[in-house]
Each structure stands twice: as structure tokens, then as C-alpha cells.
Amino acid sequence: MATRHFGQPVRRNEDPRLLTGRGTYVDDVHLPGMLHAAVLRSPHAHARIRRIDTRRAQALPGVHLVWTNQDLGPLAGPLPLLIPHPALRAKTQYALAPGIVRHVGEPVALVVAESRYLAEDALELIEVEYEPLPAVVDLEEAVRPGAPVIYPDLGDNIAAHYVQEVGNFQEAIRQAPHVLRARFSLERGAASPLETRGVVARFDPQDGSLTVWDSTQAPIPIRNGLAEMLGLPQQRVRVVAPDVGGGFGPKVMMFYPEEVLIPLAAMRLGRPVKWIEDRKEHFVATNHERLQIHDVEVGFDDEGRVLALQTVFLHDCGAFAAYGLIIPIVAECTLPGPYKIPNYRAEFKAVYTNKTQTSPYRGAGRPHGVFVMERVIKRIAEHLGLDPNEVRRRNFIQPGEFPYDVGLIYQDNAPLVYDSGNYPAVLEKCLEMIGYDRWPEVREQYRAEGRYVGLGVAFYVEGTGIGPYEGARVTVEPTGKVFVATGVGTQGQSHATTFAQIVADQLGVDPADVTVVTGDTALFGWGTGTFASRGAVVAGNACYNAAVKVREKALQVAAGLLEARPEDLELAGGMVRVKGAPQRAVSLGQVARAANPLRGTIPEEWEGPGLEASGYFAPPRGTFAAGCHAAIVEVDPETGMVRFLRYVVVHDCGRVINPLVLDGQIHGGVAQGIGGCFYERLVYDEHGQLLNASFMDYLLPTATEIPPIETAHIETPSPLNPLGIKGAGEAGVIPVPALFADAIEDALAPFGIRIDHMPIDPNWLAERIREARARVQEAR
Amino acid sequence: MATRHFGQPVRRNEDPRLLTGRGTYVDDVHLPGMLHAAVLRSPHAHARIRRIDTRRAQALPGVHLVWTNQDLGPLAGPLPLLIPHPALRAKTQYALAPGIVRHVGEPVALVVAESRYLAEDALELIEVEYEPLPAVVDLEEAVRPGAPVIYPDLGDNIAAHYVQEVGNFQEAIRQAPHVLRARFSLERGAASPLETRGVVARFDPQDGSLTVWDSTQAPIPIRNGLAEMLGLPQQRVRVVAPDVGGGFGPKVMMFYPEEVLIPLAAMRLGRPVKWIEDRKEHFVATNHERLQIHDVEVGFDDEGRVLALQTVFLHDCGAFAAYGLIIPIVAECTLPGPYKIPNYRAEFKAVYTNKTQTSPYRGAGRPHGVFVMERVIKRIAEHLGLDPNEVRRRNFIQPGEFPYDVGLIYQDNAPLVYDSGNYPAVLEKCLEMIGYDRWPEVREQYRAEGRYVGLGVAFYVEGTGIGPYEGARVTVEPTGKVFVATGVGTQGQSHATTFAQIVADQLGVDPADVTVVTGDTALFGWGTGTFASRGAVVAGNACYNAAVKVREKALQVAAGLLEARPEDLELAGGMVRVKGAPQRAVSLGQVARAANPLRGTIPEEWEGPGLEASGYFAPPRGTFAAGCHAAIVEVDPETGMVRFLRYVVVHDCGRVINPLVLDGQIHGGVAQGIGGCFYERLVYDEHGQLLNASFMDYLLPTATEIPPIETAHIETPSPLNPLGIKGAGEAGVIPVPALFADAIEDALAPFGIRIDHMPIDPNWLAERIREARARVQEAR
Q: Where in the numbering of this chain does the Aldehyde oxidase/xanthine dehydrogenase a/b hammerhead domain appear (chains A, B) (predicted)?
């Protein structure tokens, strides 16, 4: 494999455009004659709709359409279930709520008017009479007998009850020399992309074609679903995910109500319609994630080797479960991580509550699993008086043990088999970088200064790059410039650079001469989307496969032009040259032109005209990245404020395409992880009202809260794809809760404070420190 | 090959839409904010532009842009040469004329304004000072020494002088027992599609994409050329040839000035721009065809066997030759037709004149060749006192002699080799249908009644289905409906039906469930266009190749679903069934869905997701159709008016896809042929002014002028493509001038009138009859 650009810190192709304000986000789509939509949302977490009167809204001049559920015809029923599971009793939401609303923010009515201003005015003229019903808010309360039931036909609030087991946990725990029990939890949070959701739709009645601009992570499934729901051929529906200002998971949901309503309105009205979610809507109408409560029981031997582990946990679905059981399944499958756990049992209940629906958010259950496992490692170490890293070492899967079958079934329904890795190397590198050997003395120095400084470590294994497949088409134009179109969408992953590097190497051109277009179903219509750290692995290898075909074709055509054998040619600098006779050369553009003649014929062996090929990559199972984060934090014992003194990431995602891009992904993930540990928590009251639905109250970390991050990369290439790469998109965020808890516990070791849930905040921490000091006082 | 629908008179898929007025022609494209263009055209056939003052036009409120040549920047130079030839001294036209205009109607300035009305007003405010130059109008005058020269750098008006020879004409003519000489000519005519040309262009500055609606026969080359000329990537240019109201050849030109000017104006102005050619413009601004003057010398033996044939001819290019030498080369290559001519020499001069440019028009030189050859056959028969059909029989290539190498190089630069045919069968069938055996008595009866009734016969061989290639993509959607996209455009050829039949047979569905989309580069971007009777052959076989791949994929995927072997399955009625166990079945839609899963993976042997495949067909050379027309006409000796009493067509275009569609093609061709024989002639005065540039003066035949046409089909399948088909689009028109002349000569045999040029008209014919009668009077 040619690797002139692969692995290099190539600067981003997308930056000149984005940094000069030439990005196109959905709200930048301005169409002549465009109307604007606004959505009336439920103010209740759970209520019966007794009556809706839209007459006054409809009478408002400039209002073109007011819809409630009963106006939706065949689309009045529930929206599709995205990922079914045999254990799932699936309930999905409606485009507009029928008789019952089940969370605050659920769409009740749609208004389309000349302006958003007018549309919002019209919302206020819609009269809805609600009969409030008891709200199911608390996750543990929701499963107690006698709790109010959201879906009477289910009899209780349990969406799914699912068990996976490896070995025999009961037997093993009985025999284990040491047994510990604990409870761990992560609370509800939101991905909070800078760009909220948005949809613009245009219908052309003349050829019956629908174009939809959608800030989605999965334009192709949206296209396919819209075609099905709206009764249009797929070939007549074009979905464009233009520049998307952050996705992080919630934008891979399909369908959100507005993604159906806006196209339907455009079709009915014959005019383009735009809807842009405002931030307040986003907090209640875009999917959340994270709330899981894990009860854990672990058995281990005197050496700290884990013999048996069980997690029994609750997962909060919110009011619907269109995304199925992906998060809890990923959580339980991520939990064992780098460790050999011979007897492992995971049992969860996914639970409906009267809150916004949940679906994967960067990490997608992995932070939960890692939090539990790494906390357990710490507890074992404490119990045995061992260094936690020694416990890690003793439980690690060893480099010679790959492929390693964990024994579970993963989210893609494939066996959970790790392809490659070198966990000891990653750990030791990380410990070396953070200065672990010297840490006891350093810590003592800080303590001597009266400072509460702690060092934490967290290790994880991350499943990435699952199927089913992605594809790409690579085209060399007569100018010699290269175009790549792929089905994945882009929300900041630098695909326009990394895919360009992959293709440039095969075609002997500069990555700057390779234009990558993503997220436009008109340009490439086969694929699934950007999620699960799969873009680079699956679409990247599809780009590679397509580029290899184009390379072969270029050599074949150039061989005819240069009267040479293909194997005697080389591609470099935009030229095809005879090796050893550099004056015998043609430009790649000339080859492209020759491959597409206007007269004559083309040889059968070309299998078609032009320097163009499509390629696909369909992995039978995912590839597994791993990493270790270490941090040194300082806690202010008076305010509870935490400051990072150092943050080290050692990461193994196989072969690195572009270290600049990779570090950007890691940095962003760590930042989002820190937000989820210390700043971002969605707070509901007992009525199911979200109390902090604004950036005034729901805090995001900014550059000043995020420390410099030191990174290093170990490369254990994946044997599952030609590029040897593994996914990295979620890596940064995954171990942060575990790490943060570990470091703070170390810093506050004198107070004996345990961190078993996330996020925490300075107040909570300060309170714990005060309590601990009081205990010390009392003890005196 | 499955042939449930192939060969059947399937009703047209396009008719419900077109017959209910739901067609979309370029003028039906209405875009918000659209501006309108008008073109200032030269009133002189040849003049120097001394001065252009556009200030008053620019000052007119509502005018957005006034351009002359000097405003065009890099596009100020000549437009591209479409088909080069080593013998061609090519001159091509300019988007806007620079210092010199070279024919009446040549674009001089462009105005874009709020409305067409305003734009036309602005044209009148543009002041142009012309210095008239001597106009070169007459074709023979143009090549006389001392004639004015249009391009001083060439020294004369000769665009090309080209000779092809088989055997040794000089030697053979010297030894021939009989030698005749004659001169034949066809005059200038116009294709006159109901829809004139039109262009709408929209540029989106945000993603730099250009969409152009163009009434072209070749949207893909237009896309490629626009990308090159405008400096845009091909991937960012979309050309749509929507419904096109007739093409017939002139719409395969590229580029007409407006096809560059309108997109360029849309880019500069940032608003959509429309230009629709009016009929008066069409007469002078859209390419003409036909004027050729052939001097012929033929040597033959006592049996009427042709031993040597030479044609020395002039071809009228008009002012430019962007389309190269296709017409005269096709003419000389078509001339030998079904006859074995051992010594053949063709020599032509292509000549520039100050008239509208010429390019192929339905038949594209073939009517010229057939006219000459069939007239020669008649002359030989007369000379020897033989029946012309006996002369035909004696010279025919015999069914056992295929492939037959004529010995010339054809328009596609490939050797002129006929693939298959049975000319005697075609002739005998035609003679039987017209009642040739009984004709002498029938004619005598008419004459006895004082009626001038004649029977004519004309035979031709037509090269069709040349390369370089076409392609198609066939997709089965989850609904089970099938989509076909191909690169050719459609101007009435019924591709939506015939391609659907081809695909339906492979996939076991009804042709009505197959939607064919043509002429949209966004849906299929590889191909050449619709011309040279190649659509069905080249694109049809590409559809077949793609459908076969999809069929194989469907069987492969269904085999998995049905737990059967692919070879045990059959496709029919939209289902895939286990043969002999019809209850074991899945719908084609279910198979399509299974082929594109959202989770899991797809097997490597699928080579990609979905029931979709692209296929190409790239013939190394064309296939050769043939046919014989016979007609009985009656001439009114007083008025010269001619009436068809019968019209018989026996046609062999290989395997027939759809006899309804085929007959429609034949009928339309015959109608256009009759127009070219008796109604349609472009008349220029000595200054190069076209005197009959309106449908008041340039007459098109209507339904009342066209007789019922009886057709029969002989099928000699082509061995060159899997469907065994040959082209038929131009067949109807090709022999009509030869036939018409033959029949009229027969009808007017008592007057000894010879018809050696076309078109003629009633006045001319009445005059000849009067002269003949006068001669008879004199002789008395």
C-alpha cells in the first residue's frame, strides 16, 4: 500500500472553506418562496389531550397550515422503529402526538407560515386542553410495583429485560475468595451540538422529486425512510446533510417528527419549508443519553484476578425506544474491557419514563461500562492493598491472545471478538508519560504543601467500525482532479482530509486535489451513516477499495497511451510514468479523457468508461480500539473546584491516518467527557419538567476548563481491513468519568471520599469534603 | 434470454404523463427569481462589425446584463470542435461574434433582463455598425477560383477535401462495357422540431454547483464541456435534458452559443436565467442540413452489374464545421448500400458558405447516398432495358456473405463492415406487398383512365448503433418497483417503454413497474447521447447488461432468504420463487430490502449492497439495418400535386423490441422524408438572406399529407449485441427522396421527366410537365 500521505499530519481540506465562513449549514439554505415552520410542544410530561382548537391559528394572516395528528393521514401513526431487538417491547413516538403526550417537548401541532415569527405567534393561538396524568420520572421508581404505567398495554414500564452471560457467574461468585458489591450510576446528559437540528424541504411537483436538507448523521437512511413514508421512489428523494455543526449521536436518530413533518408540509403546500430547532426546543426535543444505574457484584482471588462479575442495571429510555437497546447492550459489552473475566453476567431492564427519548451519544454506553469496570478495579485494588495498575496488568488480555472472543453478542449481532491490541504496552506508555513511578513522592510533596492533588488512570476497549457497510465512488476528472463521494455524513470528522489522503496515495496526487463530498444522496446513495466510530474504518476502507480500482483502470488506460505494460507504470505527482523513463508520461487528466472517448469504442476489459469506480467495505464484525487516559487533578477543598494539572492519552486505533485529525478527535472527546463529569447534568423535577433547559443552567465546558492534552499512539493494526485502521471518534470521551473519579478519589484520599456516580459538581464535592472533615472532627 | 415483454406491442409508459399535459419541456422550468435572455443576431450574412454601443440597452431599467464578445473573457474565443478529422480545416463559431459575422442569425450580443419582453426591447437599443462583406452563398460558386473567401487564413472556402477508394475506380471504369454520368443533389432543409432550443441555468454559489436544463440530445457531453469551459468540476455541473420535443440531429450539436452564454450569465448574475429560442431564431440559429451536389460516374456490365462507381461531391458546411465531416462521410459510406461495388471512389469537398452551420439531421447523409445510388440503379436499368429490381437483385450482397466488409472507413473510424442482413428477402417481401408483379397491368389501367400513377422502390442499408458506449443503472427499490437511469436523452424515442421491456424481462416484473429516467446527468453521468440510431442498440443493451447483473444479485440474495440455490429460483410476477414450490417465495421488494440491511454486514460476494447494478455496452463497430420502401403515387399533371396511393415499408432492424414503437419511428421518419421531398426547402437569396424563415413559408407536411403506411419486419438479428437489435430511428426517412423520385418518374414516364434533385414542389413539377407537353406539341 502506497503511504505517501497516509499517516502524515496533512492540513485539513475543509478548513479554508469553513474558516472563512463559507460553510453551509441547514439554516444557510435560503430558497425563494420558502415558508417557515414552528412546532407546538407539550408542556406536560404526561397528559391526555382532551381538545385541540386550531381555528384561531389558522385564521391568522400569513399562516399556511396548522396540523395536528389527525391531519397526518397515513402518517398519523407511530414513527418507525429503527433497530428492533427480540427483547424489546418497542414504543416509538408520533410525528404529532395523538391523544396522549408522554414527555415535555413532545410535538403536538405544526404551524407553517410566512415567517418563523408569525408561526410562533400562531402557536400561541392554538388552544389545547390537557388532562395531566401522573408522570413517571425517577428511573428506580418507574420499575417499582404500583408505579404509574406509561403504556397501559405493556402492564409496566419495562421496555426490555435482557440477560447475557459468559461462563457461570453464580457458581463462580460462590467460590470466589473475595466478593465486593457496589452501585454505580451516570446521570442524564445531552450531546449539545453547536448546531441544533434543522430541516428544509423542497418538493418539485413536475417530476415528483423531493429535496431535503437535514442536519442528520445518516442522510441515506433518512432518504430511504422518507421515500417509504411519503410514498415516493427513493430515486426521487434527495437528502443532503450539508455541513453539520456537531452530531455526537443524537442526529443519527431517525425519524425525529420534524424530519417527516417538514417534507410532508412542503409536498402539501408546494413551497419550500424550513424548520430550525431553537436551543430551548433542542433541550427537550432532541434525544438525551446516559442515565443508567448499575448494581455490581465482583468475585476475585488473592492476586486480584477477577473470577466473576455481574452487573444488574437499569437503562432510562425516556418515553420511547426507537433506537432499540443499543446503549445498554454496548454498555454491557464494553464493561469487561481489556480484562479476562471468565464468568460474566449482565442483566438489564430498559425502562420507559416520561422524559425525552434517549439514544446513543458519543460513547453510547461505553463510558458507563468503563466507569463500572474501572471503579471495580480500584475497589479490588483497595481491598487487596494492591496498586490498581497491578490489578489491571494481572487481568489484561495479552498481546498473543488475539483474536479474543469475549463470549457476548455485540450491538451488530455479531460475536464480540477483539481483533488485535496490546493493552500492556498502552498502559505502560501512559504510566510512563504521566510519571507514575514518581507519583507517590510527588503526591507527598503536594500534601506537604496542603494541596489535594490526585492521579487517576482509566483503561478502555472500544468497539468501532461495525457494518453493515459503506461505499464510495472515486472519479478522476479530465482536469486530473479527483472526486470522492461517499454515503456517510460529516459533522466535523475531517473526512474531506482523511479520505483524500487515502485516495491520494493510490492515485499519486496531492490530497488537496482530492475533493470529498459526503452526505448527499444524489451523489452517493448507498450507506448507513456516521456513528459508532465507524466512518474512517468503513467508509475509509471503501474509499481505499474504490481508489485501488481506479488506480488499476488508470494503469490499464495509460498503458495503451504509453505503449507500455501496466506493471511498468507508476503514478506520482498527478502523472502516469513509465518507470525508469520519466519522459514517457501522461497526466492523470489525459488518461481520464482517453478513458471516455466521444467516438470509437472502449475495450470490454475496461468494464465501463472513465476513471471511475465504486468500492464498498462490509466488515463481518467490528474492530476494537483501546486506550488509557491518565490525569493529575487538584481539588480545592473549600470550593470543591477541580483543576487538571496534566492530561495524558495513550491511544491505539490501529494505523493512524492523520495524527492532526486524530488528536483533534481525541481532544474534542476529552472535552466532552470532562463536560459530562463535572458540568453537564439534566435536572428534572418530580413532574418531569427539565429545570435547566438553557446554556445558562446546563453548563458546557469552554476552552478555559479543558487542559492541554498530551497524546501518544500505539499502533496495533486491525487485521480486519486493508488499511489496518480502527475507529477513534468516541475514544476521547469514553474513559473520562472513570478517570475523573479515580483522580479525585486519589486527591481526596485523606478524606476517604468515594466517587461512584457522575457527573459530580463542585458543590457536591465541597459538601462531601465538609462532611468528611466533620467526621474527622467528631472522631477527635 | 427471457422475452415475455420483448417483442410485444407494449403500450408506452410515457403516454399517460405526456398525453395529460404533464410533460416538462425546458420552457416549463420556472424558477423563482429567474431572469430572461434574448440574443441580438446578425442581419448580415457576412460583415465586419465596426462598432457596438450597448450603453442605451444597459441603461434600460430591468436590464441586468448586456454582453458582447469582449465581455466573455476566456470564453471570447471559438467554441469547441466537436468531431475533429485529419482532413478538416476546422472553423467553429463564437459564443458571440468577435469582429466579423459570417451568417444571418449569428449571435452578436446577449441581453438578460427581468422579462423576455424587456430583453427584446433592449436588443433594439444596441447600436451595431456593420460593414457588409461579399457573401458566399452558392455552393458551387464558393469553390470557384476568385470567389470571395470567408476565412482569409485558409486562402479558399474549402473546409476539407477527402477521398476514399475501394479497388481501383479508374482502371475499372476504363474497362467497363457501359458508363453513365449524372448529377444529383439534395437541397438545404431544417429538422424543425416542434420544440425549439432552450436553456435554463441556475448556479448555486454556496456549493458552486450549476444546474442546466437544456433541450439537448446529449446532456452528458454538454455537462462535460460546460465543466471544462466554465472551470467547474464535472461533479458540480448537472445537465438535465427533460422532455424534449423532437431532436432529429440538430440538438446533438454542442456547443450552441446559448448553451454557454446562459450558464455563464447565471453564474455571473447569481440568478437563474432562461432563454427559449423563438421560431424565427430557430430557422437561422439552429443547424441545417442536406445541401450536397453529387457528380456520379458509373460503369457496369451487360447484366447491370456495377463494376465501378465514383461520386465527386460538394458538401455545404455553412459558416462553421464544429460537427466535422460526419455528414459527407456517412453519405459516401451509405452510398454503396446493399450492393457489391468492387471499385468505388468517393471524393468530396466540404465547403464554407455564409449560411447557418450544418450538422446531421435524421438520416445524416444517408438520404443523399441512397438517393444517388438508387437513382443510379434506375439509370442502369433504363440503359439496359432491365427491371430496376432485377438490377438490384444482381448486385445484392447475399445472405451468406456476412460479415461483409465494404472496404471504407466509417464515421466511427471503424472499418465499414455489415454484420448481418437478408436484402433479397426484404426486397421480395416489399415487392409482394406493393403488388409489383401486377403493377404493369395496374399502371396501364390508370393510364387508360388518364391518370399519372407511378410505383417507386428504394432500398437502403443504414449504419446504426455505433459506439463509443452507453451505460445504465438498474435499481430495484424496496417497493419492488424498478428504476433505470441511462445517459442518453429522449426526444420521443419511447425509451421509457422499450428499455422497461428489456429490464422487465430480466427481473420478472411488468414494464409498467419499470421507471426509466433519461437525460439527467445527476442520475447517470456516463454516456454520449442520442444520435445515429444508436439509443436502443447501445443504451438498450447497456440496460440489458445491467438488468442481468441485478437479476443475478436478486437470485443470490433470495437464495439466502429462501434457503435454496440460485439456479433453483425463478423471477416472475414481481416475486422470486423456488421452481416447483411456488409457496416458497419472496417479493422482489423484500429481496431489495434484505440486500441493504441497516445492521450486521453484507457478504463479500455481493460486491456491494442493494439490488442495483450499472452495465455498459461498448460496440467495437456499428450494426447495419436495411429496408425497402415502395410507394404508389399519383401526379396531377395540371397542378403538379402528388398524392400517395400506397406506401409500403419492409424493414429489418434485427430483433424488434416493440412493434408499436418501431412503427411509430418508421411513420415519423417517412413523414419527415416526405417533407424533405416535397415541402421543405430553405431558400436563400444571393445576399445570404433566408427568404422563408417561418412556417408560413417553409412548409411542413401535416397528417393530411402523410399516407397510411403499411409495414412489415424481417428480422436478421445482429450478432454484435446480446439483444440482436439494430437501430431504427432514422430508417423511415432515408430512402424517401430516392423512392419519391422513382415513383414520380414512373408516374410521369410518358413525359420522360427525370428527377435528379430533391426537394421538388408542385410548381416545379407542373412546369416540367408543361415543358414536356410543349416538347411533345413541338415534336408533332
A: 20-134
